[in-house]
Amino acid sequence: MTTETTPLSPATGQGLHDHGPVRAQTGEVLRLTDLTKTFVTGRNLLGRATGVHHAVQGVSLSVGRGETVAVVGESGAGKSTVGRMALRLIEANSGGIEFGGRDLRAMSQRELRRMRSRMRMIFQDPYSSLDPTMVVGDIVGEPLRVHSDLDSRARAETVLELFRRVGMDSHHLDRYPYEFSGGQLQRIAIARAIATGPDLIVCDEPVAALDMSIRAQVINLLSDLQQERGIAYLFITHDLSLVRLIADRVVVMYRGEIVESAPTSELFEDPQHEYTRTLLDAVPVPDPSRRRVLATKPDTRRIAP
Q1: Looking at residue 286, what is its pLDDT?
Q2: Are 7 and 213 spatial neighbours (Cβ–Cβ below 8 Å)?
Q3: What span, in angstroms and rounded, lies between the C-alpha atoms of 180 and 170?
Q4: Residue 210: is its pLDDT beyond 90?
Q5: Residues of the chain above pLDDT 90, percent
Q6: How far apart are CA 235 and CA 246, in angstroms?
Q7: Is 227 exposed, middle or buried (0-12, 13-18, 19+ CB in 10 A)?
Q8: Mean pLDDT along residues 179-201
Q9: Domain 28-296: which CATH number of 3.40.50.300, 3.40.109.10, 3.40.50.620, 1.10.3720.10
Q10: Contact 248/222 with Cβ under 8 angstroms?
Q11: Is 266 strand, coil or helix?
Q12: Measured between alpha carbons, how far is 133 from 40 in angstroms, rounded to an integer?
């Protein structure tokens, strides 16, 4: 298996160099309005529901072009469900989803399929999100085959350029996913996500399954791509130390509801909700006596590669 090494970038801000989050350009890419989602947890012999779980209740948020909006909260808070509903990977029970000003919930499957090139997703576990029976060159090229009119030669050239852009070599194209490390697989997943030039990428805990030593490398790649291409990120995570570095705005979820939403600097300087304060106080710091000082003076510099 191919391996990689990258220096660890501590969550405390040590080893960072100046590079704050990208500010949103003009235009709104995504707007969610009063989204709800309920899952049936049990049925009787007649097939009637005997239990339900209210995963998401009345969630509303927006993401501007070139902006990073982080959705944070504990496991089970409903973060990933919101991300999947935003792309209609799962259907909401009620509420509105507008993408580029168009009503996503009103689209037919055919219309939605055409829209998929403009909105992509990066999943938490790169091992399970990539087809193990395909070589990675074909995996990255698959969105181009489905969503573009490029011929096979043009697709091959585009895939090669995408590989180079995410830091992979051309000799990797004909290898299978099992031959790569987790960090390299996530780079391949990123190449697949950006292949069609999307306006929005939902990042569902994209570095949570990676070793601490390579998280910084992947985050820096996402940041660079955002600057180059104006991509909007809906960034789902439980890691508030990471949020400080990458997000323009933060949405805090608790038990399926949004309890606080604010620009990143404001949220860290003056959290309003008790749950938000609890999350901030749980962020590891080298000197616990300085916890509140660090929380009120967020370092928005870029992670050092």
Answers
A1: 61
A2: yes
A3: 14
A4: no
A5: 64
A6: 9
A7: exposed
A8: 95
A9: 3.40.50.300
A10: no
A11: helix
A12: 33
- Asked whether the beta carbons of 68 and 231 are under 8 A apart, the reply is no
Phi and psi, residue 11, nearest 5°:
-65, -15
Sketch the domain layout of the chain as residue ranges.
28-296
One-letter amino acid of 15:
G
For 112-121, write each residue's pLDDT tens digit.
Answer: 988 999 999 9
> In Å, what is the CA distance from 97 to each residue of 93, 272, 282?
12, 27, 33
**pLDDT value at position 14?**
33
Residue 139 tokens, joined:
């995996």
Q: At what angle do helices 182-194 and 152-165 cross, to 10 degrees?
A: 130
Give the Cα separation of 144 and 138 in Å (integer).
Answer: 10
Amino acid at 235: F
CA–CA dist 142, 245 (Å, integer): 32
pLDDT digits (tens, 9 = 90+) for 86-144: 999 999 999 999 999 999 999 999 999 889 999 999 998 888 889 999 999 999 999 99
The CA-based dihedral angle spanning residues 288, 289, 295, 300, taken in that order and rounded to the nearest 10 degrees: -80
